[in-house]
Prior knowledge:
Blueprint lengths: L12 H11 L10 H11 L4 E5 L2 E4 H17 L7 E4 L5 H12 L3 E4 L6 H10 L2 E6 L15 E3 L22 E4 L3 E3 H14 L7 E3 L9 H4 L2 H4 L3 E3 L9 H10 L4 E4 L1 H14 L9 E5 L5 H9 L6 E7 L6 E7 L13 E2 L3 E6 L12 E7 L14 E3 L6 E11 L5 E6 L3 E4 L2 E4 L1 H8 L4 E9 L4 E8 L7 H9 L10 E5 L12 H6 L21 H16 L17 H15 L5 H6 L3 H6 L117 H9 L21 H5 L12 E2 H8 L5 E2 L5 E2 L11 E7 L4 E2 L4 E6 L4 E6 L11 H9 L2 E8 L4 H4 L3 H21 L4 E5 L7 H4 L6 E10 L7
Amino acid sequence: xxxxxxxxxxxxxxxxxxxxxxxxxxxxxxxxxxxxxxxxxxxxxxxxxxxxxxxxxxxxxxxxxxxxxxxxxxxxxxxxxxxxxxxxxxxxxxxxxxxxxxxxxxxxxxxxxxxxxxxxxxxxxxxxxxxxxxxxxxxxxxxxxxxxxxxxxxxxxxxxxxxxxxxxxxxxxxxxxxxxxxxxxxxxxxxxxxxxxxxxxxxxxxxxxxxxxxxxxxxxxxxxxxxxxxxxxxxxxxxxxxxxxxxxxxxxxxxxxxxxxxxxxxxxxxxxxxxxxxxxxxxxxxxxxxxxxxxxxxxxxxxxxxxxxxxxxxxxxxxxxxxxxxxxxxxxxxxxxxxxxxxxxxxxxxxxxxxxxxxxxxxxxxxxxxxxxxxxxxxxxxxxxxxxxxxxxxxxxxxxxxxxxxxxxxxxxxxxxxxxxxxxxxxxxxxxxxxxxxxxxxxxxxxxxxxxxxxxxxxxxxxxxxxxxxxxxxxxxxxxxxxxxxxxxxxxxxxxxxxxxxxxxxxxxxxxxxxxxxxxxxxxxxxxxxxxxxxxxxxxxxxxxxxxxxxxxxxxxxxxxxxxxxxxxxxxxxxxxxxxxxxxxxxxxxxxxxxxxxxxxxxxxxxxxxxxxxxxxxxxxxxxxxxxxxxxxxxxxxxxxxxxxxxxxxxxxxxxxxxxxxxxxxxxxxxxxxxxxxxxxxxxxxxxxxxxxxxxxxxxxxxxxxxxxxxxxxxxxxxxxxxxxxxxxxxxxxxxxxxxxxxxxxxxxxxxxxxxxxxxxxxxxxxxxxxxxxxxxxxxxxxxxxxxxxxxxxxxxxxxxxxxxxxxxxxxxxxxxxxxxxxxxxxxxxxxxxxxxxxxxxxxxxxxxxxxxxxxxxxxxxxxxxxxxxxxxxxxxxxxxxxxxxxxxxxxxxxxxxxxxxxxxxxxxxxxxxxxxxxxxxxxxxxxxxxxxxxxxxxx
Length: 940
């Protein structure tokens, strides 16, 4: 019988090679147990410093002797190789000696937090089968253990072990060395420790400030990594673990060279230094961070706080209680990174990103992270080892993690979510890390955490602001509405002080969840009298039927992305029109274009539904306002459940509010007054008659007012499809009071010349020819006028021409031109290759444009060299730059008509990835983009 195995998705050859290179790193497999290698290191570095603690300093030989003495006491108490020894100690040198002693006796070290309640502590020890307890003398008076367990104090003197006592093998019953939530083998700990030591040249001259308690997974490196390399551990007092001043003093006093902690704990120290104008000590050469998401801003703060640039590495593990399995030494931080990637697998480890059907995910595609190699090898003789699944092609056992990740083109793993930090909306899981990252991008936010609360379908955000920042929950919620799906909006945003930390320095998400306020009941809006509210299932079914008919598809799931079903922006607008006409559902077009799904349409209408509107060609009276009138105030913002309130117009924002490619925010622009003719008269009122045009003659000057008038109130944004279409049909940009006034007739080109230009949103798969593309881009070239002066076919303020054009070619989509990035050199009228391997992630574009981007043969990016115009026009430079980009776009659109190329203007995208693709600098600002290819022939 043949075993069923999922058919793998064949990746492109270059991506398969990328995976092979990432996973093809091997190193000699340790031949001995962790215990034996620690003993070898102690003999090799016997006189070197091994441990520094308050009141105690030990060499490697002295530390080994202490551990041997405690191990002898364990053996005398009946501990044999393969037993489990509970290590219940508070932070201090005793955790180092106790862990080494348990291993030397051949036992599995079982850390138990002494602060646990008695039932939990006893259960932890008895369920794991502990046969003895190692603790501290003062704890024996405070906590008790089952009578059958011998209890030994690590700090109490005992008989010295014979000088040549060899450590026990420890492999007679199990090859586990340490047990947290799951057993960890000697080989797994040794592999991680030795490879990190080797990668960063850790040696006898190094000192690591050990901050993790014994029951933390971070202790797996802190306890053993430095000792295997002959380096020293520095421990402070337990009361100083959350005192950044004391930590800074320990770093400085003891010449610490290695820092190893979660990012949050390092952030505590950096905040302290920033408040006092201090710096990290010059001795610090390496910063190892892991255990939670690493914000690129923290890496930059490390470099700013150090007299010289220490190496900063990001580490990650395959399981919450396992040793490190991946590593990335951060160099230049890519501007598109929202979080620092966890890097590539350490030697003898392998990583795979697979779909839920166990198919390999292509580059940039999110899947579940799986590990092979040492990480997937369970210790022998241990129960409850993590289950594995077979690799879809090789059959290799893989450890299925709770992390969701994607592979970057550089061969790095980018973790984008964690199954413990997700909410479920209609059985569809959504990653809260997206919300967390978006909050962190707000300029006022120092740090943020978002956790699931309630039944798992809601979330809470806790935010700490920078000193002096004033952003409140309403502003932060409005910020999120522009960044994430409506389903990811937290039901409550709490702005407060520092985030709580766990005992090992990670953000304490469990505590944030436990302290969450009870969810308040949100009353549903009263349904309109003309039609009762429908239940969710009925409304979903009705909207789904209309959607299938409009899009011409057989079936649709509530959370299906309609773009994946082939919908275009035009079809989405048609769908919104049909829903309003047939079901009375006013659809927020901006929201639908950003998050196209049936569930998003229905979500904002649950509990409130109006009857189908009358077929009135004019918008309601609130759409336009006569001069002097005041529109109704919009509802006050606040933390409202996402399903009940539509978000503000959504787009794909830049990675950071301070991104160098982000255009400066425009200042407030007062709304243009709408003439009375555009306002529909009230029922029964006489129609408005526009005033006669002014008589010809001199126009008297308008005196300047002595007091500036108050700014006109901004009219509310129109979201209903009917209201928006009616507003557009009214053509408010035309002065209708002159519609009946005689004038001089103008002639011009035939209508075909004007109507030939159009935007194309879908492209055929065939390639564009290089001659056609050259004809298009040649319109931007610089020529010489009759007098030899440089001339362009479009204007620029002061002839400065700061807007540059960049081309990204999709591989194989332009005949005669390789893929990658190019600069359009206007003076030479040539394409200059920048990076033949350059690509852009599809999610750099707004979701509504991703299908077009995927079909396009190429894309053009208009990017301003802002310092080419600022010295001439100062604050007006950006305005003139935008005008120039508009003229270039119009020129390209008209030229494209004669080349057979279709163009789709794109005004909104995440510009951060452009920096690397086009080798840009801080002087560059993204302005506009166009997607191009062979236009798809639409069915009539």
